[in-house]
Design brief:
By secondary structure, the chain is α/β, with parallel strands linked by helices. The chain has a single domain, classed as Glutaredoxin (3-Layer(aba) Sandwich). The protein has a five-stranded mixed beta sheet with strand order 1-3-2-4-5, sandwiched between helices. 27% of the residues are buried. This is Thioredoxin. It comes from Fontimonas thermophila. One of its GO terms (biological process) is cell redox homeostasis. Keywords: Disulfide bond, Electron transport, Redox-active center, Transport.
Length: 113
Amino acid sequence: MSEHISAVTDASFEQEVKQASQTQPVLVDFWAEWCGPCRMIAPILDQVAAEHAGKLKVVKLNVDENPQTPAALGIRGIPTLILFKNGAPVATQVGAVHKAQLNAFVAPHLNVA
């Protein structure tokens, strides 16, 4: 993990994502160690998290270590990125994406000051 991305678990998901600040959307990366595409997008997620620091919270949830949350959200494949705003999922992206695609995915949901 980087300084801009934190890990969440089944136990902390409610507090870290669903009860997160109303002013800042939360991007959740559902991933696993063995997943090649998950490893491919990790540095891209890090760049996006750094560029949008203060406007976007980025967290990662390991699906192998935390099976309850992905099951509850109906996650069928990884990597899956879900953007939560005001505690509710507002957008989903499945599969590895390029940086431009990831920026386009999150941009409409960022509060522009």
